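Give me structure tokens for this 393-residue protein.
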Amino acid sequence: MTKSAISWYSNSLNQPTGYGTQSKQVISRLVKAGHKVAMLSNYGGEGVNTFIETDAGKIPHYSRGMNQYSTDVLPLHFSHFSAEHKDLPSFLITLYDVWVLLDNPALDALPIASWVPIDHSPAPGKVLEFLKKPNVTPIAMSNFGKAMIQDAGLESEYIPHAIETKVFKPTKDLPEGISGREFVGGEDKFVVGMNFANKAGGFIHRKAVAENLLAFAIFASKHDDVILYLHTEPFGKQSGFVLPTILQACGVPADKVKFVDPVAYQYGISQETLAAIYSAWDVGLFCNYGEGFGVPQIEAQACGVPIITSNFAASAELASPDSYLVNGQPFWDAGQNAWFNIPIVSGIVEALEQAYQRGRKDFPDTVAFAKQYDADKVFNDSWKPLIEKLASK
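Here you go.
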């Protein structure tokens, strides 16, 4: 395999965000494979340039710049790292929304491969504007995304996001010794679990929070033995929604809801603990307006938990045969000039009721379904040949 000097632009790999965990996962394997890799941080790497630990040793860690997405320093950091490895093919891989990279002419001279989320139909114009640049290789992270890119007349690679199935597997107890069922408050209850980032764009919450909570309220009004576990920040501190207000408006009794400990959530919960939390659920509730991928959906299923999710965008391809797809109706996102899809509340209620009637049991087919997204498998089958292809350009 041709060794390369790879600049990786995304959330810092020390951050427990979706982009951060994917960055850590791929970068660690790239380093183990013998490549030179630098982390070009757009979040979570404030301050001076330094080094950061990966699972394969330390790599250079370039701090974020002065603007929101660090695009002011991106070309400089790429050039600096590439100059230190003049004997190797050099290219930039981005894992972020690519519209933030527009209007920076310095990027037009760089060899770029963009691992891009697409959660609208059609693909938003600003996304396509960047992907059409001759120096950019698009990498779709879902089959839906690849189809949207193709519909615009562009070719793309396809590499899905991945998970560590050695960690995310059916797990009874937390590392601290307490059972997952006890931790989520569902020893003798039917547990509906949600795990999402409570961030919204203005008045639109892409995770369909209000619709999901209203559906649970209707479902819970018919059953005394159900509980909703919310693995998220409750008060919308990062431009999200105030969840207790919605729960109250929906009439959900306080004893039917449990939030994750906010301090533990803010400072990081280990993946091993999260696996036990997922395993304690009876069903995962992940309906949304549109997903570029949706890593928690796969994590939950790897732990043996079927999910309820939207029959739209990437979510439609991330549901096991034991899971439930909910149809929706188009919603015009004027900010992107493209369609989202709002899940129908009655459809969510119906799926919750079907899951409840089916009850708690083992779902080996769901676990097997999730293993196609194993990080080692995805790296060997998809990343290795793509890196070889990029190095040969």
